[in-house]
Amino acid sequence: MNIKVFNIRLSKEHCQQDQTRMNEFLDAVEVKLSSTNFVTTGTLDYWSAVVFFEPKISKNEKQVSKFSEEELSPIELKTFKALQSWRNDLAKKLDWSAFRICHNSHLVAVVKANPQTLSELENISGFGKKRTEKYGDDIMSVLNAL
Question: Has residue 64 got a pLDDT over 90?
Protein backbone atom coordinates (compact mmCIF):
# COMPACT_ATOMS: atom_id res chain seq x y z
CA MET A 1 0.00 0.00 0.00
CA ASN A 2 1.21 3.51 -0.80
CA ILE A 3 0.83 6.69 1.23
CA LYS A 4 0.68 10.36 0.30
CA VAL A 5 0.27 13.42 2.52
CA PHE A 6 -1.47 16.60 1.39
CA ASN A 7 -1.55 19.95 3.14
CA ILE A 8 -4.50 22.16 2.24
CA ARG A 9 -3.56 25.71 3.15
CA LEU A 10 -6.49 27.90 4.14
CA SER A 11 -5.28 31.15 2.59
CA LYS A 12 -7.30 32.25 -0.44
CA GLU A 13 -4.28 32.26 -2.76
CA HIS A 14 -3.41 28.59 -1.99
CA CYS A 15 -6.60 26.77 -0.92
CA GLN A 16 -8.11 26.16 -4.38
CA GLN A 17 -4.76 25.16 -5.87
CA ASP A 18 -4.08 22.66 -3.04
CA GLN A 19 -7.58 21.19 -3.33
CA THR A 20 -7.28 20.81 -7.11
CA ARG A 21 -3.93 19.04 -6.75
CA MET A 22 -5.40 16.61 -4.21
CA ASN A 23 -8.56 15.97 -6.25
CA GLU A 24 -6.53 15.20 -9.38
CA PHE A 25 -4.49 12.71 -7.38
CA LEU A 26 -7.60 11.09 -5.85
CA ASP A 27 -9.11 10.64 -9.33
CA ALA A 28 -6.03 8.71 -10.43
CA VAL A 29 -5.78 6.20 -7.56
CA GLU A 30 -7.90 3.75 -5.60
CA VAL A 31 -8.18 5.12 -2.06
CA LYS A 32 -7.99 2.47 0.65
CA LEU A 33 -8.04 4.71 3.73
CA SER A 34 -7.70 8.39 4.58
CA SER A 35 -7.30 10.52 7.65
CA THR A 36 -7.43 14.28 8.17
CA ASN A 37 -6.29 16.60 10.90
CA PHE A 38 -6.51 20.34 11.37
CA VAL A 39 -3.07 21.76 12.07
CA THR A 40 -2.40 25.14 13.63
CA THR A 41 1.11 26.43 14.22
CA GLY A 42 0.18 29.86 15.48
CA THR A 43 1.14 31.49 12.20
CA LEU A 44 -0.20 29.00 9.66
CA ASP A 45 -3.40 26.95 9.72
CA TYR A 46 -4.04 24.08 7.30
CA TRP A 47 -5.71 20.73 6.87
CA SER A 48 -3.40 17.75 6.60
CA ALA A 49 -4.76 14.72 4.76
CA VAL A 50 -3.06 11.33 4.70
CA VAL A 51 -4.18 9.05 1.87
CA PHE A 52 -3.41 5.33 1.73
CA PHE A 53 -3.87 4.16 -1.84
CA GLU A 54 -3.20 1.64 -4.59
CA PRO A 55 -2.67 2.60 -8.22
CA LYS A 56 -5.82 2.23 -10.31
CA ILE A 57 -5.75 -0.61 -12.80
CA SER A 58 -6.99 0.78 -16.07
CA LYS A 59 -9.18 -1.31 -18.29
CA ASN A 60 -6.28 -1.51 -20.73
CA GLU A 61 -3.99 -3.07 -18.12
CA LYS A 62 -4.60 -6.75 -17.73
CA GLN A 63 -3.68 -9.14 -14.99
CA VAL A 64 -0.82 -11.06 -16.57
CA SER A 65 -0.32 -14.65 -15.52
CA LYS A 66 3.11 -15.43 -14.18
CA PHE A 67 2.24 -19.06 -13.55
CA SER A 68 2.42 -22.25 -15.52
CA GLU A 69 0.46 -25.49 -15.26
CA GLU A 70 3.26 -27.06 -13.21
CA GLU A 71 2.74 -24.47 -10.47
CA LEU A 72 -0.95 -25.20 -9.94
CA SER A 73 -2.07 -26.74 -6.66
CA PRO A 74 -4.08 -29.99 -6.86
CA ILE A 75 -7.35 -28.06 -6.51
CA GLU A 76 -6.28 -25.51 -9.12
CA LEU A 77 -5.20 -28.32 -11.43
CA LYS A 78 -8.68 -29.85 -11.16
CA THR A 79 -10.19 -26.49 -12.15
CA PHE A 80 -7.69 -26.12 -14.99
CA LYS A 81 -8.56 -29.60 -16.32
CA ALA A 82 -12.29 -28.77 -16.18
CA LEU A 83 -11.73 -25.55 -18.15
CA GLN A 84 -9.49 -27.38 -20.59
CA SER A 85 -12.14 -30.05 -21.11
CA TRP A 86 -14.81 -27.38 -21.72
CA ARG A 87 -12.55 -25.61 -24.23
CA ASN A 88 -11.59 -28.82 -26.05
CA ASP A 89 -15.23 -29.95 -26.29
CA LEU A 90 -16.26 -26.57 -27.70
CA ALA A 91 -13.37 -26.58 -30.17
CA LYS A 92 -14.35 -30.06 -31.39
CA LYS A 93 -17.97 -28.96 -31.77
CA LEU A 94 -16.89 -25.89 -33.79
CA ASP A 95 -14.26 -27.88 -35.71
CA TRP A 96 -11.58 -25.44 -34.53
CA SER A 97 -8.20 -25.77 -32.92
CA ALA A 98 -8.54 -25.37 -29.16
CA PHE A 99 -6.13 -22.42 -29.09
CA ARG A 100 -8.59 -20.38 -31.20
CA ILE A 101 -10.87 -20.31 -28.17
CA CYS A 102 -8.08 -19.65 -25.65
CA HIS A 103 -4.58 -20.80 -24.86
CA ASN A 104 -3.62 -22.95 -21.87
CA SER A 105 -1.83 -19.91 -20.41
CA HIS A 106 -5.16 -18.05 -20.45
CA LEU A 107 -6.82 -20.92 -18.61
CA VAL A 108 -4.02 -20.91 -16.02
CA ALA A 109 -4.54 -17.16 -15.57
CA VAL A 110 -8.26 -17.76 -15.01
CA VAL A 111 -7.58 -20.47 -12.45
CA LYS A 112 -5.09 -18.30 -10.56
CA ALA A 113 -7.31 -15.19 -10.62
CA ASN A 114 -10.46 -17.15 -9.74
CA PRO A 115 -12.83 -14.46 -11.07
CA GLN A 116 -16.22 -14.13 -9.45
CA THR A 117 -17.77 -11.88 -12.09
CA LEU A 118 -17.58 -11.36 -15.84
CA SER A 119 -15.97 -7.99 -15.18
CA GLU A 120 -13.16 -9.67 -13.24
CA LEU A 121 -12.77 -12.23 -16.04
CA GLU A 122 -12.47 -9.44 -18.60
CA ASN A 123 -9.45 -8.04 -16.71
CA ILE A 124 -7.46 -11.26 -16.98
CA SER A 125 -4.67 -11.48 -19.54
CA GLY A 126 -5.97 -13.04 -22.74
CA PHE A 127 -9.54 -11.99 -22.12
CA GLY A 128 -11.15 -8.85 -23.32
CA LYS A 129 -14.65 -7.72 -24.00
CA LYS A 130 -15.19 -9.95 -27.05
CA ARG A 131 -13.77 -13.16 -25.59
CA THR A 132 -15.60 -12.56 -22.32
CA GLU A 133 -18.87 -11.95 -24.19
CA LYS A 134 -18.38 -15.15 -26.21
CA TYR A 135 -17.18 -17.52 -23.50
CA GLY A 136 -17.56 -15.75 -20.17
CA ASP A 137 -20.85 -17.34 -19.12
CA ASP A 138 -19.53 -20.82 -19.94
CA ILE A 139 -16.29 -20.20 -18.05
CA MET A 140 -18.12 -18.84 -15.01
CA SER A 141 -20.40 -21.90 -15.11
CA VAL A 142 -17.41 -24.24 -15.08
CA LEU A 143 -15.83 -22.30 -12.20
CA ASN A 144 -19.04 -22.26 -10.19
CA ALA A 145 -19.69 -25.97 -10.77
CA LEU A 146 -16.52 -27.00 -8.93
Answer: no
